[in-house]
User: Which sequence fits this backbone?
């Protein structure tokens, strides 16, 4: 369990650290970080299901300027780990994940604020002509800040979070039911936020076509995705041909 706790701590640390954004930003979202946690804890399928549920409220997640509506980098891996080790169901895990994301906004603020110290230190090294030390200031210290603020709590959750499920069940049934209802509504909130960005006359029909294919025809997500990819290719080819005709190119 110690090894698993350390690995979960490293996953949570890397979700915030600059390393996770070098190639892709997928570590930012619970769907990927939670899956990695499930893989480490030996429950990849359960981890993927819980991570997907936690991810849905953050589907429309965006950080505009200094605004930080949540901390999915923490909620994803830590929420998934807590749910797996304590035996929470998907709806309860979603609610706990969102609560963690909301409460730990200050953790993200502290992480970014502390890292400003290394910027000034890097400037001092640059003024002295020490380029190597300047680069190290940009790369290394932020890892330890993230490990302390994010990794250590994740490690403690894996090591000591198992009783949380039993403690959670001691709540009155109406509170437990309330958590389940809220957990079921959270994904709808995320989808609603996403629709705000898709609220354009040219895009909305595609959303409702996908909804109709899944709801009325019973197609799986993979089938709908495959059909959407084919439609996108057809539209691209049609627009490309139309552009060539207008510009005098080959049809």
Assistant:
């Amino acid at each position: 369990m110690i090894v698993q706790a350390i690995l979960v701590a490293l996953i949570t640390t890397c979700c915030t650290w600059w390393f996770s954004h070098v190639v892709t930003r997928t570590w930012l979202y619970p769907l990927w970080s939670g899956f990695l946690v499930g893989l480490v804890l030996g429950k990849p399928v359960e981890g993927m299901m819980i991570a997907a549920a936690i991810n849905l409220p953050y589907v429309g997640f965006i950080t505009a300027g200094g605004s930080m509506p949540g901390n999915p980098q923490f909620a994803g891996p830590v929420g998934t780990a807590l749910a797996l080790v304590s035996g929470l169901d998907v709806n309860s895990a979603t609610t706990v994940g969102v609560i963690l994301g909301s409460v730990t906004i200050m953790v993200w603020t502290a992480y970014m604020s502390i890292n400003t110290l290394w910027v000034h230190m890097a400037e001092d090294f640059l003024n002295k002509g020490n380029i190597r030390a300047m680069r190290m200031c940009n790369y290394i210290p932020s890892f330890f800040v993230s490990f302390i603020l994010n990794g250590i709590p994740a490690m403690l959750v894996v090591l000591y979070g198992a009783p949380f499920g039993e403690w959670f069940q001691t709540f009155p049934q109406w509170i437990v039911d309330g958590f389940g209802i809220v957990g079921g509504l959270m994904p709808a909130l995320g989808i609603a936020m996403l629709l705000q960005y898709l609220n354009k006359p040219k895009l909305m029909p595609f959303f409702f076509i996908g909804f109709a294919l899944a709801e009325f025809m019973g197609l799986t997500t993979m089938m709908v995705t495959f059909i959407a990819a084919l439609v996108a290719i057809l539209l691209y080819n049609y627009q490309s041909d139309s552009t060539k005709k207008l510009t005098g190119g080959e049809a």
Q: What stands out?
A: The two ends are 63 Å apart (CA to CA). The CA atoms of residues 87 and 165 lie 6 Å apart. The chain has twelve helices and no strands.
